[in-house]
Amino acid sequence: MEIDGFHVDRVPELKTPILIAGFDGWGNAMDVSTETVLFFINECNARSFARLDPDQFYRYDASRPVVNIEAGIMKHFLPPSGIFYAAATPPRSNDLVLLRAEEPNLNWNRFASGLMSLCRSLSVSTVITLGSMYDSVLPSDRIISGIASQTEHFEELSLRGMVPISYQGPSAVHSLIHVEAKKAGISSISLWCHCPYYLQGTTHYGILSNLARLLSSICLVDIDTSQIDERWDRLDTQIRQLIEESPELQKMISDIRKEKVRGSWASLERSGANQKVIDIRDFLDT
Asked: Which of 56, 115, 148, 266 is 20 to 30 A from 240, alpha carbon to alpha carbon?
């Protein structure tokens, strides 16, 4: 199979697969997007079958390659990348195509067009992109907003608590993927998780677990979130202790809670710009 910018090592045989894509970068607050995809890769024993050509889609001065040098000898040179995985699932479930990638810096149209070509060749029924943003929310909140191209998907997700997105402003590659999916006649969904802007520097396993369960219900795939739930329990305990020791954080959270009680969450400043940001890696036990 020849797709410009895509190296396809093999073509997996899949039944009505759903593509789930998570990108590192601008839309990956608290690692929720990429770590959710990694969770499904591990949980479903997915195998890689294709990868992006980094020279086609990445600026190395913006997404720096990573090197491993030992005792003056170059061992590895790893450019930014994106890898596709495939997972077969039980008979009544949808098989999965999983993309874990850094968000492309270049040639978005070529990337989205190639992605749709790959989807058509694999008979992908639905494309789901995952994102996460910093927002004025509580650490315990599990807010997921989104869009869906099909009415039945939108209604189903709304029943499961998804908040419809209303937004104007800078976009991620997710938006172009959904534009191209519509042109290709492929159903598409975009899900965005809302993370507390004042706590950065770790993975929010609580939101990750909630998103994973939502995806499992869409794909009809059984998953076990017990390990990430345990990680969240430990992290949540440390976050609570950090808040107890910080009057400034207590005030921020109190203000957010008051706004929620007044029902004005939707009007809160999304980015948390000019607000206090704490890298909680400086405080958490390792």
From this structure: 266
